[in-house]
# Entry
Amino acid sequence: MSSPPPPPPPHVLLVSAPLQGHVNPLLVLGRRLASGGLLVTFTTAPHVGLKLKHQHEQPGDDVAVVDDVGRGALRFEHLSGEGLWAPDDPRYRVADDVGRHLDDVATVALAGLIRRQADAGRPVTCVVANAFAPWALRAAGATGVPGAMLWTQSCTVLSLYYHYFHQLAAFPSEEAGPDAPVDVPGLPTLAAGDLPALVHAPEEHVWRQALVSDIRGLRETASWVLVNTFDELEHAAIEALRAHLPILPVGPLFDTENGGGHDECVTWLDTHPPRSVVFVAFGSLVKLSHDEMAEVAAGLASTGRPFLWVVRDDSRDLLPETAATASGNNSGKVVPWCAQRRVLSHRAVGCFLTHCGWNSTTEALAAGVPVVTYPAWSEQRTNAAFLVDVCGVGVRLPTPPTRDALRHCLEAVMRGTLDGEDMRARAEEWKAKASAAVADGGSSCRATRDFVDAVLSTGAGD
# Structure
């Protein structure tokens, strides 16, 4: 008589708002959880602007197994039904509209998906949801499934929001003054201008509303708070916030392998000497004005240094003709997209002009590349202050930018002056620390293992 098949491993459902900067780190976390022996399913509301590569997927498939990883498997199940927009709906292009829409309908859609998993013989053991998707943890609670949050920004920013929305520290106000410094346990003193933007965004702002829902209910909805950072980078902030939340630093969350095959950007970089190229990228959402684009282009040209500049298709019409034509020769290359992690890791890149999104911040640190910071919104000003004042690996570009200021900043990093050499040495130190954190036995590896063990224990008790 044959023995019954073994039960499926504990099942973690990863849930994200359909925004690329939210999706990418959650997918990396999923692969690491799967390699630890968990069954992992990823879900979001897919749309045509979202890059989701599903190995084995056919057009129209709702389910795709991406990879067998260790003893687990990473799967995709698209969130659909219950009034969710179709993948080709143009409203996905407006982030605020996406936020409102998901808050209206996604809780019911996700609860239905959780029930279908149980009906299929793979009940969900834990839901891990990105921040800014409070509907996901609401669905987990409604179906009786434990929840965890993945905070994809820094622990510093999480601590600032937590102390602000729980009124645990003094922040700039009419009483304290608009320029009052901010002192939060575990953090350096911050200027008012370095605070994340949603602290003082209007109450009706859709992403502020999502954040308030996340932060105020976090102790009740999340059994774990996974943070895209590593202990060596934010030790004091992590330890201080653990007095309030069950923090596990599991980052940096990006693929350690840069991939192979033909890449026109890498091929172009191969033709340049070490540390000679300025890499410029402002993320998937920031859109510079016509005047800003003109000053950046003129500043890059004034250095006489080769540059690689990512200009999205929706900003191409703002690009000065002089910069556009530069991509036809060896002085510069303008592309609509690149594999950023792979580019930053290339020996030819000597400086990164960045908007300071947290993904870009951690990628720069892990690649050992010093930066010129030009933050635009959200938590980017906080990240810029962190890179310059705490990590010591960058300089600030004033706002609004001028060609002369940009040239001065780039030369401070690129010319090999004493300050530039110090910055580069510190950048190399952070590169080593980031690599050690995610290596076997490193701080983030251990934190991830602790979470996997907790979920395995929870699953064993079902």
Observations:
- The longest strand covers residues 63-69.
